[in-house]
Amino acid sequence: MIFVSGANGQLARAVITTILAAGRAGSLAVGTREVNSPFARELAAMGVGVRHADFRDPDLMRRALQDVDKALFIPTYDTNDLRLRQNLNALEAARAAGVRHIVYPSFLNAESARVEHSRLVHFPTEQAIRDSGLAFTILRHALYADILVGDLQETLKNGVLRRVGGKARCAYVARADLGVSAAQVLMRDEPSGRVYSETMEQTYSGDEVAALMSEVFGRAVRYQPVASSDWSRYMTETWGVPPEVASSTVGTMQAIEAGEFDLVSSDYREITGRPARPMREFLESVRDSRLSAP
């Protein structure tokens, strides 16, 4: 039995959709805090086992993981001071329930001391998984390309893409693509101990992303750098992100400026047999989905 946590989240949905497309509904169980959400009910109607799961509750997690062989543990969106304890709860529940293999989505260059969620959550979780005695696969994700289009309407309206980075290049990958690769790992006989770094096979500067947006969306877009020191305030004032959440991203922005994510890997191709979509194809998919929306 395959288990995917956080079933109502966007990454989990991409993983689940891929597994369902492969005809594996009967061998899939999903965990969620909200078992009565529309998506959870839809999955249950397809024959997917929908289980009440919460990383904050080890006993509940242990029950949710009964009869599971391989589990994908997607970290929650709680604050970083809580997430490591939650991940450790899930890991201990997996051991108690007899789960054989853990798949964990981590972050590119997880050893980085600058990046708060790597330092406080992802890297110590990786270490705990290694020490657990369970088989494991770690998927280190580049920055989601999706974060570049979260405010796309505003970007196209004003003709300005505002992001941290300056001239530095950065690795990205589409969240939907990561759903495909994680599903592949879950559905196959994956050897233990692999650590994959998943990126597009090219890095991009802010100017290059803006130029591609101009071509794909047919509207002039220029890149305007935002300093990492100003990023937290920008997120709060412009997007309404809570200050405690915005401040936790500053280290990530500093790492982008320092070129820590100017990294390219072919690991995605190794998992799936094809490269992750380049930025142009990702942006074209966003454009096409906007055009087809009712």
Instruction: Tell me about the largest β-sheet.
Output: 7 strands, parallel
Helix tally?
13
Biggest sheet strand order reads 3-2-1-4-5-6-10
Radius of gyration: 19 Å
Low-confidence stretches: none
Shape: globular
Write down the secondary-structure element order.
EHEHEHEHEHEEHEEHEHEHHHHH
Straight-line N-to-C gap: 37 Å
CATH architecture of the domain at 2-142 and 174-199 and 263-276: 3-Layer(aba) Sandwich
Query: In the CATH scheme, what's the topology name of the domain at 2-142 and 174-199 and 263-276?
Result: Rossmann fold
Please bin the fraction of helical residues: 40-55%
The count of β-strands is 11
What do we call the CATH homologous superfamily of the domain at 2-142 and 174-199 and 263-276? NAD(P)-binding Rossmann-like Domain
- For the record, the CATH class of the domain at 2-142 and 174-199 and 263-276 is Alpha Beta
Q: What's the pLDDT, averaged over the residues?
A: 95
Strand content: 15-25%
Query: Which structural class best describes the helix and strand composition?
Result: alpha/beta
Entry summary:
With 294 residues, this protein is α/β, with parallel strands linked by helices.
Chart the SSEs and their pairings.
Layout: E1 2-4, H1 10-21, E2 28-32, H2 38-45, E3 49-52, H3 58-64, E4 70-72, H4 80-97, E5 101-107, H5 116-131, E6 135-141, E7 143-144, H6 152-158, E8 160-163, E9 172-173, H7 175-187, E10 194-198, H8 206-217, E11 222-225, H9 228-239, H10 243-247, H11 250-257, H12 267-272, H13 279-292
Parallel strand pairs: 1-2, 1-4, 2-3, 4-5, 5-6, 6-10, 7-9, 8-11
Helix pairs in contact: 1-7, 3-4, 4-5, 8-13, 9-11
